[in-house]
Amino acid sequence: MAHRVGIARALTVQPEILVLDEPLGGAGRHDQDRMQEELARIWREENVTMVMVTHDLEEAIYLVDQALILPKDKGGAARLIDIDMPRDAVSNSCARSSRTSWRTSMTKRAM
Question: Which CATH number is 88's domain given?
Answer without folding.
Answer: 3.40.50.300
